C-alpha cells in the first residue's frame, strides 16, 4: 500500500487499536479496557403550548477532548436519541424555523443552559427540551395624510448590552409592501422599538441634481419610531410574548428639517460605481441615516446625499461591487442646519496596512495555536473589525485600518497568558481605547506567561451545586478587557484561565442577560454579596461562589 493510501486515524481510533494489541498479547478481554458508553434521550416541545415539535435540528457538543459534535433530528413525536456517548458532560442545542435557536434549558441568554452529564453505562432519559417559539410584529406605515408608504425599511430594535452600556440594536428588519404593510418575524420574547426609514430618498442614482442648492433647509420624512416620533427616547416599546403574532404596530411618518450634502470624491478609481455613505454617531445599529447614501457614477466623481438631519457623521466610500471593503479613510463630518456644498472627500490611503508583532515568551503562535489580533472601532460603529492571524515569528499585518479609536483584542493565547502592554509607534496605548487618529503605526503587543487561574464551584443558598450558572470576575479597574466569565459544569464547577493579575470581585448568577455584568448600574445592587480576590502572578486560587438571588 502506498503512503498516500494509509488511513488517517483519529486519537480515539489510535487508542482503540492500542487497546486491541494489548488485549491480544495479554489474552485479556477487550471489554476490561473499555469504559461503558451512555446515551441521552428525550423530547422537544413548544415552550408556549407543550406540543411536540418535529424536525428540530439538534447538536450535542462535548467538553471532553475535541471532536465533531453529534447531530440528530426529532421525529414526528418530538423524540430524539443520542447513543454511544463517552461518559462526560454535554451541551445540547436546537434550531428550527419559527423558533429560537437556543441551548437546552436556556432563559435570558439563549446560548447558555445547564449541561447534561452522562455516567459510564448510564441512559439519561426523559430530557424535555422546551424550544421557545418566535414572535412576530406587524403593522402599517403611513404618511402624514394617512396614505400608505411602500418600500420603506422597517426595523425592530432590542435593548442589549454593548461594552457595558444598554443600547438599542437591530434585531430584525423588513420592507413595506404596496399597502404600506410590514411583518417582522423570528423575534425573541421581549420589548422592542419599531422604526421606519425611507432609504430611497436622497439616493442619487442619476448623480448630482443640476442647479444651486436650495437657500433654506428642507422638510423630509426622517427615521420615525412607533407610533410617530423622530426621537428615539420618546418611542413607545412594544412587548411580545412567546409565539405571539402582534399586529397594529402602525407608524405615521414624521417630517423633520434636513439638508443636502454635495461634494466630490478625489482619487476615485476609474470606471467604478462607488457608494458614499453617512453613518450617524449615536444612532442605533450601523447609524445609517435616511438619505444617507449617495451614488458616484463611473468617471463622475460627484455625489449628493439628500435629507440629512443635523448631527455628527462619518462619511465613507465603498465600491458598489465590494460594499464590505472601505475605500480610503473615513471623513468626520459635522452637519448643521445649512446645506453643505463643494465638499472634498479624498480617498487617501489614510490607514492602509498596520503591521506589528506579538511577543509571547516560549510560544510559537502558528505552531501550537492560532493567535488572532483584532481591532474593534469604538468611536463609530462602522461594522469593520480588521483582523489578522499571527505568524510563527509573531508578526501580523492588519489591512484597511483607518484613523480612529480602537480596542485591541488578542485571541488564541495559551491558558497561562494575558496581554500585558500594547505600543503603537513606540508609545504605550490603552488596550481598551488605542487612539490611532494619527493613522496606523507599528503595533507591538507584549504578552506575559504569568497569568493567574481561578477554580471553584457555584452553590446556592442551600450550599448545593448550581449547574449552568454564570460566574464573573469583575476587575477593580473596570477595564473591559479584564472581565472574565464562564458557565459552570453540571456539578457547579468552573475554571477561569488566562486572568491578568490584579484585584477582582467575583459574582455568580443562575440566569443573566448577555453582557449585563459589565454594566456598573446592574452590578451595584449585588456588590455587597461579592467576594474580593487578589490574584498574584501565576496564582492558582480556589473559591466557592454563592449564586446571587
Can you offer a commentary on this structure?
With 549 residues, this protein is mainly beta. The chain is built from 3 helices and 42 strands. Strands 2, 3, 5, 6 and 7 form a 5-stranded antiparallel beta sheet that branches. The protein is globular and about 80 Å long. It starts with 10 loop residues before the first helix and ends with a strand.
Write the layout of secondary structure elements.
Elements: H1 11-26, E1 38-46, E2 57-62, E3 70-73, E4 79-85, E5 88-95, E6 102-103, E7 116-118, E8 123-131, E9 135-142, E10 153-162, E11 165-175, E12 181-187, E13 190-197, E14 218-221, E15 224-225, E16 238-240, E17 245-246, E18 251-252, E19 255-266, E20 274-280, E21 288-296, E22 302-308, E23 311-319, E24 322-326, E25 331-335, E26 340-346, E27 354-359, H2 365-368, E28 372-377, E29 387-389, E30 395-398, E31 405-411, E32 418-424, E33 427-429, E34 434-435, E35 443-448, E36 452-459, E37 470-475, E38 484-487, E39 493-499, E40 502-509, H3 520-523, E41 531-535, E42 540-546
Parallel strand pairs: 1-8, 9-17, 9-18, 19-26, 27-35, 36-42
Antiparallel strand pairs: 1-4, 2-3, 2-5, 5-6, 5-7, 9-12, 10-11, 10-13, 13-15, 13-16, 14-19, 19-22, 20-21, 20-23, 23-24, 23-25, 27-30, 28-29, 28-31, 31-34, 32-33, 32-35, 36-39, 37-38, 37-40, 40-41
Amino acid at each position: 500500500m502506498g503512503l498516500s493510501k494509509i488511513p488517517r486515524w483519529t486519537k480515539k481510533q489510535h487508542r482503540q487499536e492500542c487497546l486491541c494489541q494489548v488485549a491480544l498479547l495479554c489474552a485479556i478481554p477487550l471489554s476490561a479496557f473499555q469504559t461503558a458508553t451512555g446515551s441521552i434521550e428525550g423530547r422537544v416541545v413548544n415552550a408556549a403550548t407543550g406540543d411536540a415539535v418535529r424536525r428540530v435540528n439538534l447538536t450535542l457538543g462535548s467538553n471532553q477532548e475535541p471532536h465533531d459534535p453529534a447531530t440528530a433530528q426529532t421525529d414526528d413525536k418530538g423524540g430524539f436519541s443520542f447513543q454511544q456517548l463517552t461518559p462526560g458532560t454535554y451541551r445540547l442545542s436546537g434550531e428550527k424555523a419559527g423558533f429560537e435557536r437556543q441551548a437546552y434549558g436556556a432563559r435570558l441568554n439563549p446560548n447558555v443552559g445547564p449541561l447534561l452529564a452522562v455516567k459510564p453505562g448510564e441512559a439519561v432519559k426523559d430530557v424535555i427540551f422546551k424550544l421557545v417559539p418566535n414572535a412576530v410584529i406587524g403593522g402599517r406605515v403611513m404618511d402624514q395624510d394617512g396614505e400608505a408608504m411602500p418600500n420603506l425599511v422597517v426595523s425592530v430594535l432590542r435593548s442589549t448590552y454593548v461594552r457595558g452600556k444598554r443600547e438599542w440594536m437591530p434585531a430584525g428588519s423588513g420592507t413595506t409592501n404596496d399597502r404600506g404593510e410590514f411583518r417582522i418575524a423570528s423575534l425573541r420574547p421581549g420589548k422592542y422599538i419599531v422604526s421606519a426609514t425611507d432609504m430611497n430618498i436622497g439616493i442619487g442614482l442619476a448623480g448630482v441634481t443640476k442647479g444651486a442648492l436650495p437657500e433654506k433647509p428642507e422638510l423630509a420624512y426622517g427615521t420615525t419610531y412607533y407610533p410617530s416620533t423622530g426621537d428615539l427616547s420618546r418611542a413607545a416599546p412594544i412587548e411580545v410574548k412567546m409565539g405571539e403574532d402582534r399586529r397594529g404596530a402602525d407608524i405615521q411618518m414624521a417630517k423633520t428639517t434636513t439638508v443636502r450634502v454635495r461634494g466630490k470624491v478625489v482619487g476615485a478609481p476609474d470606471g467604478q460605481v462607488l457608494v458614499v455613505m453617512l453613518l450617524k454617531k449615536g444612532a442605533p445599529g450601523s447609524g445609517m441615516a435616511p438619505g444617507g447614501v449617495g451614488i458616484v457614477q463611473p468617471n463622475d466623481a460627484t455625489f449628493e446625499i439628500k435629507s440629512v438631519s443635523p448631527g455628527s457623521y462619518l462619511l465613507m466610500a465603498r465600491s458598489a461591487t465590494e460594499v464590505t471593503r472601505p475605500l480610503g479613510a473615513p471623513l468626520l463630518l459635522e452637519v448643521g442646519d445649512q446645506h453643505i456644498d463643494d465638499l472634498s472627500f479624498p480617498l487617501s490611503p489614510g490607514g492602509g496596512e498596520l503591521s506589528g508583532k506579538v511577543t509571547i515568551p516560549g510560544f510559537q503562535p502558528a505552531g501550537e495555536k492560532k493567535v488572532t489580533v483584532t481591532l474593534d472601532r469604538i468611536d463609530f460603529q462602522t461594522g469593520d473589525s480588521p483582523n489578522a492571524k499571527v505568524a510563527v515569528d509573531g508578526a501580523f499585518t492588519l489591512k484597511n485600518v483607518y484613523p480612529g479609536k480602537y480596542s485591541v483584542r488578542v485571541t488564541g493565547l495559551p491558558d497561562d497568558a494575558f496581554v500585558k502592554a500594547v505600543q503603537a509607534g513606540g508609545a504605550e496605548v490603552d488596550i481598551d481605547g488605542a487612539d490611532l487618529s494619527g493613522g496606523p503605526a507599528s503595533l507591538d503587543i507584549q504578552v506575559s506567561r504569568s497569568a493567574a487561574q481561578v477554580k471553584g464551584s457555584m452553590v446556592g443558598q442551600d450550599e448545593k451545586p448550581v449547574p449552568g450558572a454564570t460566574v464573573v470576575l469583575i476587575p477593580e479597574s473596570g477595564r473591559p478587557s479584564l472581565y472574565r466569565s464562564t458557565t459552570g459544569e453540571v456539578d457547579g464547577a468552573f475554571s477561569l484561565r488566562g486572568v491578568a493579575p490584579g484585584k477582582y470581585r467575583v459574582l455568580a448568577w443562575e440566569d443573566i442577560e448577555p453582557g449585563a455584568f459589565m454594566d456598573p448600574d446592574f452590578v451595584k445592587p449585588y456588590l455587597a454579596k461579592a467576594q474580593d480576590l487578589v490574584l498574584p502572578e501565576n496564582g492558582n486560587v480556589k473559591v466557592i461562589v454563592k449564586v446571587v438571588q
